[in-house]
Design goal:
Length: about 55
């Protein structure tokens, strides 16, 4: 499971807490910006800092 952050509003999308993959959403739940605004911040306990969607 991975954690993503919206570049527009800072919303944190944690796949484990949300119970779904980032690929299952089309827009940020908070600011409604397109899903390509999310950057990967953590995957399997490792901080990445790279964009991924």
């Amino acid at each position: 499971m991975a954690v993503y952050r919206c570049r527009a509003c800072g919303y944190i999308f944690d796949e484990e807490k949300e119970g779904k993959s980032i690929r299952d959403i089309d827009v940020c739940p908070r600011c409604k910006q397109p899903d390509d605004m999310f950057v990967l911040v953590e995957e399997d306990g490792n901080t990445e800092g790279k964009e991924e969607k």
